[in-house]
């Protein structure tokens, strides 16, 4: 067993599953709600953002319901195993977390606004779990695609930490890193709650408003 104790931990590259050189399944062609292609290349002027905030079924719906979002898809990021399967990610042996890729029009919705939605839609202080969902695949993360995204994400974290601390919450455990490989998830995961309206959604925030666009973190 890789995890002999009760607490989940990330595997080292040497411990991680080997994976495979190519995905075992095709990417669904179009978004079932928005009707847009899931795969790139995307139209000029659009930007990409990657967010992990717990089970990606409910998380994806939060973003596809946002004006200015062109398409969304779910996948796995932040680990070691190339082209993992869902069961492998859930084993904790790949190091990935469940991620929503958001393709958006920055002339309609800003990256800062998407960050506000991200912070307010989950509890970013819980480490390797989100609510009742427990495991390294449920950790909070932001994977950035530019220096500007990295800076904005870090500033938003610092601002939100202040208000969370004031409301009795502990340190934010969200990892904020430059985006590495993104491996799209199985077709049945894509827009899951559109295909299964009564399906499970474990997404829930702290109830603490994020002050993006209102206040800057002091430091």
Structural overview:
With 219 residues, this protein is of the alpha+beta class. The chain has helices spanning 56-64, 86-90, 111-120, 147-166, 192-195; strands at residues 47-52, 69-77, 97-104, 129-130, 133-134, 141-144, 175-178, 183-184. It has a six-stranded mixed sheet with strand order 7-6-1-3-2-8, with helices on one face. A two-stranded antiparallel sheet has the order 4-5. It is globular and about 45 Å long. The termini are far apart. Mean pLDDT is 94; it is low at 1-5 and 214-219.
Alpha carbon gap, first and last residue: 43 Å
Tell me about the biggest sheet?
Answer: 6 strands, mixed
Number of strands: 8
Low confidence ranges: 1-5, 214-219
Work out the radius of gyration. Answer: 17 Å
Q: Tell me, briefly, the overall form.
A: globular
**Number of continuous helical runs:** 5
Strand order of the largest sheet: 7-6-1-3-2-8
Helical residue percent band = 10-25%
The SSE order reads EHEHEHEEEHEEH
Oligomer: single chain
Q: What integer is the average pLDDT?
A: 94
Structural category is alpha+beta
The fraction of residues in strands falls at: 15-25%
Reconstruct the topology from this structure.
Elements lengths: L46 E6 L3 H9 L4 E9 L8 H5 L6 E8 L6 H10 L8 E2 L2 E2 L6 E4 L2 H20 L8 E4 L4 E2 L7 H4 L24
Parallel strand pairs: 6-7
Antiparallel strand pairs: 1-3, 1-6, 2-3, 2-8, 4-5
Family: Belongs to the MsrA Met sulfoxide reductase family.
Catalytic activity: L-methionyl-[protein] + [thioredoxin]-disulfide + H2O = L-methionyl-(S)-S-oxide-[protein] + [thioredoxin]-dithiol; [thioredoxin]-disulfide + L-methionine + H2O = L-methionine (S)-S-oxide + [thioredoxin]-dithiol
Function: Has an important function as a repair enzyme for proteins that have been inactivated by oxidation. Catalyzes the reversible oxidation-reduction of methionine sulfoxide in proteins to methionine.
């Amino acid at each position: 067993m890789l995890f002999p104790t009760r607490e989940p931990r990330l595997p080292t590259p040497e411990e991680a599953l080997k994976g495979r050189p190519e995905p075992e399944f095709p990417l669904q062609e179009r978004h079932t709600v928005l009707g847009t292609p899931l795969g790139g290349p995307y139209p000029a002027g659009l930007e990409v953002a990657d967010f992990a905030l717990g089970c990606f079924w409910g998380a994806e719906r939060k973003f596809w319901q946002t004006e200015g979002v062109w398409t969304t898809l779910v996948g796995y990021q932040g680990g070691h195993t190339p082209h993992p399967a869902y069961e492998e990610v859930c084993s904790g042996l790949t190091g990935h977390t469940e991620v929503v890729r958001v393709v958006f029009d920055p002339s309609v919705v800003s990256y800062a606004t998407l960050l506000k939605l991200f912070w307010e839609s989950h509890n970013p202080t819980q480490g390797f779990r989100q609510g009742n969902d427990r495991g390294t695949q449920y950790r909070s993360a932001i994977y950035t695609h530019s220096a500007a995204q990295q800076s904005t994400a870090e500033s938003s974290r610092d601002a939100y930490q202040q208000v969370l601390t004031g409301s009795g919450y502990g340190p934010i455990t969200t990892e904020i890193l430059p985006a590495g490989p993104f491996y799209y998830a199985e077709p049945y995961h894509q827009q899951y709650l559109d295909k299964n309206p009564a399906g499970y959604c474990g997404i829930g925030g702290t109830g603490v408003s994020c002050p993006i666009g209102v206040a800057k973190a002091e430091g």
